[in-house]
UniProtKB/TrEMBL annotation:
Molecular-function GO terms, alphabetical: cyclin-dependent protein serine/threonine kinase regulator activity
Provenance organism: Gulo gulo (Wolverine)
UniProt family annotation: Belongs to the cyclin family. Cyclin AB subfamily.
The protein, known as: G2/mitotic-specific cyclin-B3
GO biological processes: cell division; mitotic cell cycle phase transition
PROSITE patterns: CYCLINS
Residues annotated as domain Cyclin C-terminal: 294-410
Pfam families: Cyclin_C, Cyclin_N
Coiled-coil intervals, chain numbering: none
Region listing for Disordered, in residue ranges: 1-50
Every Cyclin-like domain range: 201-285, 298-379
Source organism superkingdom: Eukaryota
Gene3D superfamilies per record: Cyclin-like (1.10.472.10)
Polar residues bias (residue ranges): 1-22
């Protein structure tokens, strides 16, 4: 098996010998309070050209190239301009007035002009009726079903994609049916669930080292699991599989992904470039080049926005969900359900259980169906992290992540009372 991430010293001239296991390093002990966590570990690799990514991403996936205040002002001006154009040019909003003006203009013409008044309504009626039904705040069927606030009725910020948000997440839940994972360790003869846990723990460290998004991390783990479900892998190729899956996920999610040589370097150069390219081809062919796999992190951000949760609550749910990545027992759980269970437990831990009905509405899962999963997640938080699997715990114990690991898990009896009350 491969070696851990290289130390902060310069790259050695001679290659290190291969090791039989992945040993992730622990970054949480030497950090100073208030310093950026990712800046501490980025010195272990050569400086990269890609722009540094902030620890917290905006829930909207909005671009950070300009200040937030300028974005708001620009969006307001954009909405004002669009609303003026709609009010001035849309026949459906002022059809009667335009007809009167047209009649007067026709009277002033010296020569009679034949105007077909039936064509305009026939052409504009359908698209305008659809637009008005979308933009207007009239009572829809969904609002009749529940009194909850429609979070997608805000059209002032185009980065939210409010028109397509529900369709996007409905489509993602439909795609979950295509990417259902099954237990595969009984087919693997040379690797175990413990080796997989060490690999995922190392991938979390890689994600922090390269300062890549959490979407890339979640997708890389999904690619590894789907590949192992179809192909038998040897233990000496397990880290090659993980690093190559991370390379593919970075190409899919990142605007500036690392190159192949960077991933070879973090593997301590125990693999050749041709080996990684061959593994990349094997993964893509095994998955039939369909790597747009729904991940739990997308649903977490959606639930947080719908419930207007604070960043600390979202970070706590992210910590709970990220702890499950290295646990083989959660492989079969759907991404949307895992995200809903993690977020529900975070609400209970933050004493926000009264928001559970809203989560039930937006997630599509009944809270009663999530109770067994919530109990398992709470039990997972009570377990003491293994010495080889401390990266996630040390990551979220930093001040940048609100030190959410210090929030104690719920007592099982108290959790039972909360679940029975709901």
């Amino acid at each position: 098996m491969p070696l851990p991430l290289p130390s902060q010293s310069s790259k050695p001239e001679t290659k290190k010998s291969q090791s039989s296991k992945i040993v992730p390093s622990d970054h949480g002990q030497s950090e100073k309070r208030g310093e950026n966590y990712q800046a501490k570990i980025s010195s272990s690799l050569p400086k990269r050209r890609c722009k540094k990514r902030s620890a917290f991403e905006d829930l909207t996936n909005a671009s950070q190239s300009q200040p937030a205040q300028l974005k708001k002002e620009a969006n307001k001006e954009f909405v004002k301009d669009v609303s003026k154009k709609i009010k001035g040019n849309t026949p459906a909003l002022g059809l009667a007035k335009n007809n009167e003006m047209n009649k007067e203009s026709y009277k002033l013409e010296p020569s009679p002009v034949v105007v077909s008044t039936t064509l305009v309504p026939n052409i504009m009626e359908k698209p305008l009726s659809l637009e008005i039904s979308t933009i207007s705040k009239t009572t829809t069927t969904e609002e009749q079903i529940t009194p909850l606030e429609d979070i997608d009725n805000n059209y002032s910020d185009p980065f939210f994609n409010p028109i397509y948000a529900k369709d996007i997440f409905s489509y993602m839940k439909e795609r979950e049916e295509k990417f259902i994972l099954k237990k595969y360790m009984n087919r693997q003869t040379d690797i175990s669930s413990d080796m997989r846990a060490i690999l995922v723990d190392w991938l979390v460290e890689v994600q922090m080292t390269f300062e890549m998004s959490h979407e890339t991390l979640y997708l890389a783990v999904k690619l590894v699991d789907h590949y192992l479900m179809e192909v038998v892998c040897k233990r000496d190729k397990l880290q090659l599989l993980g690093s190559t899956a991370f390379l593919i996920a970075a190409k899919f999610e990142e605007s500036c992904p690392p190159c192949v040589d960077d991933f070879l370097y973090i593997c301590d150069d125990i693999y050749q470039r041709d080996e990684m390219l061959t593994m990349e081809i094997s993964i893509l062919q095994t998955l039939k080049f369909d790597i747009n796999i729904p991940i739990a992190y997308h649903f977490l951000r959606r639930y947080a926005r719908c419930l207007r949760a604070s960043m600390k609550t979202l970070t706590l749910s992210r910590f709970i969900c990220e702890m499950t990545l290295q646990e083989y027992d959660y492989v079969q759980e759907r991404a949307s359900k895992l995200a809903a269970g993690s977020f529900l437990l975070a609400l209970y831990m933050k004493k926000l259980g009264h928001r559970a009905p809203a989560l039930e509405y937006y997630s599509g899962y009944k809270t009663s169906d999530l109770h067994p999963l919530v109990k398992q997640l709470n039990t997972l938080l009570t377990l003491r992290p293994c010495n080889k699997l401390k990266t996630v715990h040390s990551k979220y114990s930093h001040q940048v992540f609100f030190e959410v690991t210090k929030i104690p898990p719920l007592d099982m009896l108290k959790l039972e009372e909360m679940l029975n009350y709901c």
